[in-house]
Predict the structure.
Amino acid sequence: MIRMIENRKVLNIGLSLFAEELRHQGIDVVEVDWSPPPEIEEDLKDILNKLL
Amino acid sequence: MVIALRALEEASKFIGLAREMIEGLSQQRAGRYRSIEDALASNPDIKLAVISVPGRYVEGLARELIERNVNLFIFSDHVPLEVEIELKRKALERGLLVMGPDAGTSILEGVGFGFANRVRRGQIGLVGSTGSGLQEVTTVLDGMGLGVSNAIGVGGRDLKDQVGGMMTVQALRTLQNDPETEVIAVISKSPGPSAVSKVVEFVKKEVRKPVIFCLLGLDSRDLGGLKNVPTLTSLALELARAFDESVAQRQLDRFSNFVDSVKERVRGGDGFVRALYCGGTLATETIELLCGAGLKVRSNIEHRCAELLRAAEAAGHLVIDYGAEEFTEGRPHPIIDPSLRNSRASEELRRPEVKLVIIDVVAGTGAPADLIERTIKVLGIDGLHVEKLVVRYVGTPSDPQSSDLPRLEKSGAIIAPTNAIAAITSVHMLTGQTGLVEELLMKYIIRSGR
């Protein structure tokens, strides 16, 4: 017993394929909805930084 | 009016509360949360997280989880090396394991993470900076009736000198303290000498269980008296010997019979081999064996005895790793979707100068359920009698894909019991030199473990 999944619970961030595979093995999978942060052009970021 | 306003305030409070409750319930029901903070607030007992977002976004997520004392399995590749080093340092300060980045496989307490096969549970613990290497060894062990306590994948770069084997050591510490583990194996491809020294030093000082190394691509096999075997197959045999010599002997007999059956079936002759892999460590192992046979090999993997080339080139003896980062940027890993590799294999099978094509068909979690059907279809081998295709099927009878295995066998493809045996078989097919094949079997499979 290496005490990482003794409660049969795992957090998944990313591919739902891995969450499904873990569920098939009897693991309670908690998922975080993740999407890439919006890309902001560097110059627009500078302007925003100055304004704020 | 005052009463009405108060009633409105109260009503909106209740509506807000009701909304929160409904949202909370639906989140719980679906098991999905908007943030790590929310997920861990509702599930404070979580001790392990799987991350598979694009590599450039891993750092922030991983750091937050480490700060919350969560161990990590990071499947993502393309994570900057300096980020990996920093994350592993922070994790070590808290006594946590960071498996990855670029961790293909782990099996923890019988549960497979990333790409893993359904193997028996047992007393063998493994640490690997390789996914396919762990899959190869655990499936070969399973075929001998032996099981795994834990197989800890620490990421492809953990034994590079810059990372220094931080998580290999942490995983060894974990297995040393694991009462189910009796024997330990460490697997890596092309490790750095200084990282290896650190691991060897740790093993000598701290580990009280037998440890066997399989460090492919290391210039020197001398580990200061510790056992280091040359192939994944010889590692599996050596692990078996730790429990029962006769099990290893029976398996050796099976391997010899297999090689003899191929010798009877296929005549050796001129031509080239095209070895096209989803698993990088299997590709590295094949380079070692072909080089050991004196063949001039070209590969997209940096290796001391292979000439580096672009993967699209087709000349001479080639070993190509389709799991290399050049193929996985913006594409799924070839174990999830092997179509690119399979298309190339189909082309190569039809080239007259190609004597044989070696492919790995990697079953288990993460691989498609119709893996074998797809492979047969893309290769266009259904109904043909193909004696120039050598397949290493990395799977166990318990993997869901294995029910289709008879279809692959019916196609006439030569299905090798291990990857090293596939490579040695290919040397017979390329050269027809019986003495050379016997020599390779002796050096890389039989004598190496003794």
About this structure: Residues 9-51 of chain A form one domain.
